[in-house]
Amino acid sequence: MHPARRLTGPLAMATAAAFFLAGCTAGGPAEPGGGVMSPAATVPPSTGAPGAPAPSTAPGQPAPPAPSSSDPAGAGLATFTFPDGRLSFTRPADWKAEVFEASASPYVGTATIYDASDKQLVSIYYGQIADGVAGAVTRTVFESVPVPGLQGRSTPEAHASFYVDWDDDDATYHLQLTAGAPATGPRDAVKGIILLGDRVLTAEVLFDDQQFPDDKAARAWFAGSQGQALRAILASFTYR
After folding, report:
1. Comparing 76 with 2, which gets the higher pLDDT?
2. Which of 143, 170, 216, 227 qualifies as a cystine partner to 222, CB 3.0-4.6 A?
3. pLDDT, tens digit, for every residue of 168-180?
4. What is the pLDDT of residue 132?
5. pTM for this structure?
6. Count of beta carbons in the 10 Å neighbourhood of residue 76
């Protein structure tokens, strides 16, 4: 599988800065069981009020745990809210989310979602700096659905989309937020940038070690429990 194209320009620099700063704080106190605590703030399920803002932090410092609670509307779900109290999503209650704020002005925050086995599954960027990618591909769209909690917040409106891009003989599978519904056929690469006022949002499932031998296998994975759980996360974003 051909590696997904990377975001370039200011967004890539901002994201790189976040990971550089996170690396500088590595080697912290050990977690129970011998692991090393992540420099980002882990947000386990709790009974706090969903959507309540958490205190901000100085640039380059790990953000404090954002409010996270069991979701009464869906058994086995928990709500994660970014520290500014505006952007939220739901995830399985036994999965976790970590957030790291690289800059307060301009705001740059990144979040990672891990499953119960501590595998990284989703990368989220939320901030005031963005850039896109370019390049012609041939695309097949498997599914693209509107995100109810982001409708009316951006133009084109946000969708949760699963599709494959072909670049010559290389296939790159994507499950991510897209600005509008991507279309099948010869197309430019999807930027995946959702505009939310003065903020931008990108969210994409990480397929770094997920190999699909063909579209049939990709569809089967998407119809399974993990694919549907990840689809549900992308479709659950809300912004206020």
Report:
1. 76
2. 227
3. 889 999 999 999 9
4. 63
5. 0.70
6. 12
Residue 96's φ and ψ, nearest 5 degrees, are: -130, 160
Q: How far apart are CA 219 and CA 122, in angstroms?
A: 19
DSSP for 92-152?
ETTSEEEEEEEEETTEEEEEEEE-TT--EEEEEEEES-------EEEEEEEEEEE-GGGTT
CA distance 6 to 25: 25
Query: 65, 92, 64: which is closest to 78 by C-alpha?
Result: 92
pLDDT in tens, 9-57: 334 433 433 333 333 333 333 333 333 223 344 444 433 333 333 333 3
Among all chains, which residue has been given the structure tokens 């590696």?
Answer: 3
d(CA 98, CA 123): 10
How long a stretch of residues is the chain?
240
Number of helices (H), then strands (E), belonging to the chain: the values are: 3, 14
- Please return the burial class of 48, using the count of CB atoms within 10 Å of its CB with bins 0-12, 13-18 and 19+: middle
- Say if residue 87's pLDDT is above 90: yes
Are the C-beta atoms of residues 109 and 127 closer than 8 Å to each other?
A: yes
Give the other-Cβ count within 10 Å of 78's Cβ.
Answer: 24
C-alpha to C-alpha distance for 17 and 59, rounded to whole angstroms: 11
Residues forming beta bridges with residue 107, ordered by sequence position: 104
In the numeric block, the tokens 């010559």 are attached to: 168
* Distance spanning both ends of the chain, measured CA to CA: 37
Cβ count within 10 A of residue 61? 16
